[in-house]
Specification:
Blueprint: H1 2-22, H2 28-42, H3 45-59, H4 65-74, H5 76-81, H6 83-113
Helix pairs in contact: 1-2, 1-3
Length: 124
């Protein structure tokens, strides 16, 4: 369990280092997770070593929301002061996400529904 946990933390550290070095506007843990995914695709044997630790972490994922809840309670006044801006941002980002997902799905459905095009010289 310790080596698997160390592996997860090393990938998070790599992600943080890359984001810091490249000044990328992406959270470091997300980059680390993408790197870990790439390694797991290239070396599937690592999956069996990491799986038990990852499942244990996922079982206790709700504990990771406690600091976020404390942060919300600590900044409740600020959230109240900026409620309109937060609400507008939430509604607009939700609508943009839904619209982009719908347009992507419509495009993919059209692409899949097209009949195969005959190649030159082949009878239809």
């Amino acid at each position: 369990m310790i080596p698997a946990l160390a592996t997860l933390l090393v990938f998070q550290l790599l992600g943080e280092a890359l984001v810091f070095t490249l000044a990328a506007p992406v959270p470091g843990p997300v980059v680390g997770l993408a790197l870990l995914l790439l390694v797991l695709v290239l070396k599937p044997a690592w999956l069996q070593a990491i799986r038990p630790t990852a499942q244990t972490l996922l079982q206790h994922l709700s504990l990771l929301f406690v600091p976020a809840g404390v942060g919300v309670m600590l900044h409740l006044q600020r959230l109240g002061d900026e409620a309109l801006a937060i609400g507008v941002a939430l509604v607009l980002s939700t609508l943009v996400g839904l619209a982009s997902a719908a347009l992507t799905m419509a495009w993919l459905m059209q692409r899949v529904a097209r009949p195969p095009q005959p190649v030159d010289g082949e009878p239809p």
